[in-house]
């Protein structure tokens, strides 16, 4: 991916967001999509699959692949807010290099990268992760420069059981609350969630390191 260009896009979006908040008046919010997957509803989702995790239905589990959610005919609006729960399961190696890493999770909005970050999980010794930093800051010697944060940084729960390799082991899954608000006026919206991961045991990659999502909520915001 062209990270330099994507970082520039994000800076422009932040400026536009600030301008909208300062220049507009009262906001009207309209929830245009909400899904906890309890009814196995995969409408508008490509490559969707549902699994039970920790007593709840989630979309997943995925390893390197992922899903996309497409919404059409959205009423006039100025901004979009997307929020959901992200579960990082089992043994993610964060910023580690070589056959164990990097383990990168990606969130795309209409084809551009809103989040391109690493996670470390499952008692990874000496590991770091870039989250909650959403993007690499630069290149160093043609290598992406990810932030060096502690494993599980900004997680809201770190003691959940693993899903496969660390099944029933406390601390095998960490839960993150993802939320992004950004300028958007188009009638169509596409949310994509994916990952890029390395594992020395590719045949069991989906068991060793995977992720899932729950409680997706998308809100269209209009300023009056």
The helix tally amounts to 2
Shape: globular
Low-confidence segments, ≥5 residues, pLDDT <50?
A: 1-5
Question: Gap between N and C termini, in Å?
Answer: 37 Å
Brief descriptors of the model:
224 residues; mainly beta; Jelly Rolls; 7-stranded antiparallel β-sheet; 5-stranded antiparallel β-sheet; 14 strands; 11% helix; 45% strand; globular; disordered N terminus
What does this protein structure show overall?
By secondary structure, this protein is mostly beta strands. It has one domain (3-223): Jelly Rolls (Sandwich), CATH 2.60.120. Helices cover 11% and strands 45% of the residues. It is built from two helices and 14 strands, in the order H-E-E-E-E-E-E-E-E-E-E-E-E-E-H-E. The chain is globular. The N and C termini lie far apart (37 Å).
Structure at a glance:
Helix content is 11%, strand content 45%. With 224 residues, it is mainly beta.
Helix and strand arrangement:
Layout: H1 3-23, E1 27-35, E2 45-46, E3 50-53, E4 56-62, E5 67-71, E6 79-90, E7 104-109, E8 112-118, E9 138-140, E10 143-145, E11 157-161, E12 170-183, E13 189-196, H2 205-208, E14 209-223
Antiparallel strand pairs: 1-14, 2-5, 3-4, 4-14, 5-13, 6-12, 6-14, 7-8, 7-13, 9-10, 11-12
């Amino acid at each position: 991916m062209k990270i330099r260009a994507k970082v520039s896009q994000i800076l422009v979006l932040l400026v536009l967001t600030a301008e909208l908040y300062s220049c507009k008046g009262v906001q009207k919010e309209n929830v245009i999509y909400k899904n906890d997957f309890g009814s196995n509803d995969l409408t508008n989702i490509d490559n969707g699959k549902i699994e039970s995790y920790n007593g709840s239905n989630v979309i997943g589990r995925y390893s390197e692949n992922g899903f996309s959610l497409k919404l059409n005919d959205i009423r006039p609006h100025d901004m979009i807010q997307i929020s959901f729960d992200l579960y990082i399961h089992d043994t993610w190696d964060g910023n580690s290099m070589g056959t164990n890493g990097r383990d990168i999770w990606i969130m795309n909005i209409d084809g551009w990268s809103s989040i391109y970050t690493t996670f470390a999980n499952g008692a990874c010794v000496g590991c770091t992760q870039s989250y909650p930093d959403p993007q690499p800051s630069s290149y160093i010697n043609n290598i992406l420069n990810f932030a060096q944060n502690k494993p599980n940084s900004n997680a809201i729960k770190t003691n959940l059981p693993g899903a496969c390799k660390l099944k029933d082991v406390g601390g095998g899954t960490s839960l993150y609350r993802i939320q992004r608000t950004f300028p958007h006026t188009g009638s169509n919206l596409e949310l994509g969630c994916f990952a890029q991961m390395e594992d020395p045991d590719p045949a069991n990659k989906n068991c060793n390191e995977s992720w899932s999502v729950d409680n997706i909520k998308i809100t269209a915001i209009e300023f009056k």
